[in-house]
Amino acid sequence: MTDKRTTASAELRHQWAHITSILLVVAILFTFLWLIRMRQLLLRGAKDMDKGILTPSDFCLMGRHMEFDNYDPESIKNEIQEELNSQYGIDELVYVNPVYDIADYYRVVASRHEISKLKLLTDAHMKAYMDKEKCDRDKYIEVINNPEECPKDAPKRGGFLGLCGKRPCDPAEINQELADI
Known about the structure:
Layout: H1 2-52, H2 73-88, H3 103-133, H4 137-144, E1 156-157, E2 167-168, H5 171-180
Antiparallel strand pairs: 1-2
């Protein structure tokens, strides 16, 4: 009799687990679909708001590679004002915001940032190594430049895309690179 009762109880638990897992899957699917719908509503609301807003960029003209007699902002504004007035009959120009191509500047800043990170890592490693080995900077540089003695945890550079570098970072070399930028 207890065997039948145990079997019936086990079967009931199995059915309950099956029903619970089905309800869980339905709840997850419902939540997923609800999140997709909410995202659609938010995006639609943002687009509707953008349509109704007027910003200065809606009335902005941008020129590239323009040449002027004088490059101070007031002279640039006067030359553009004359051109707009003669070509299109536009009498009022609110302001001119000269912007220059700064791509080279960003490349230099990115390079300086990468070298500065290497310097911080190298300086931290050098300090830790010198404290551990009770040595001075010259001994550290000597050890770093010797492949047999170089610690495995020393910051390295080179390699593919700067990853998996093999050449240890020499503090003097990094300082020279920073000075050259």
